[in-house]
Specification:
Strand content: 35-45%
Number of domains: 1
Distance between the termini: 68 Å
Number of strands: 6
Structural class: alpha/beta
Strand order of the largest sheet: 2-3-4-6-5
Largest sheet: 5 strands, mixed, barrel
CATH architecture: Beta Barrel
CATH class: Mainly Beta
CATH superfamily: Nucleic acid-binding proteins
Length: 139
C-alpha cells in the first residue's frame, strides 16, 4: 500500500513538472519594439549599479525592458546578428547590446562615437551589462 502511494505521488509530481515545463517552453516572446521600457537610464548608470551591488541590480533590472542612452564605441556582427557596445567611464566594463533581426538591418546607419538610445531585455552582468533583443529608439 505504501509503495502504491509513493508511485502515485511521483506520477503527480511528474505530471505537474511536465505541465510547468510545457508552459515555460511555450511562453510568448516579448516584442521589445512595441513594449514600453520599464526603466530608462544611461550606460554609465546601469554599469555602476551592477558594479557596486550585483544582487541589487539583478533584482532591479533582470528580465526587464531597459532603455539605455549611450555612445557607440564598437559595432560587430556575429552569426549574422549585430552587437553594439556602448561606452562607459569604466575602462573594464560596457553595455553590450545584442540587436534584433530588424535592428541588425539598420546597423549600417550607425557610426562609432554616435549617441544613441537602445531598448532591450537585460539578461545580466559578466564584466559587461548584457541586453538582448535590442531595438533602436532614436533611429
Amino acid at each position: 500500500m505504501k509503495i502504491k502511494k509513493i508511485i502515485i505521488g511521483i506520477l503527480v509530481f511528474a505530471i505537474i513538472g511536465a505541465f510547468v515545463a510545457y508552459k515555460m517552453y511555450n511562453k510568448p516572446h516579448v516584442n521589445v519594439a512595441a513594449a514600453s521600457a520599464d526603466i530608462s537610464l544611461t550606460a554609465d548608470e546601469i554599469l555602476n549599479d551592477f558594479s557596486s551591488d550585483e544582487n541589487s541590480a539583478n533584482s532591479k533590472y533582470l528580465e526587464k525592458i531597459i532603455e539605455v542612452k549611450g555612445v557607440v564605441s564598437e559595432i560587430n556582427i556575429e552569426k549574422e546578428k549585430g552587437i553594439i557596445t556602448l561606452k562607459t567611464n569604466d575602462d573594464f566594463g560596457s553595455v553590450l547590446c545584442h540587436l534584433s533581426d530588424e535592428a541588425t538591418k539598420k546597423l549600417n546607419l550607425l557610426k562609432e562615437g554616435q549617441a544613441i538610445i537602445v531598448k532591450g531585455i537585460c539578461t545580466g552582468f559578466l564584466m559587461d551589462v548584457i541586453l538582448v533583443k535590442c531595438e533602436f529608439v532614436n533611429q
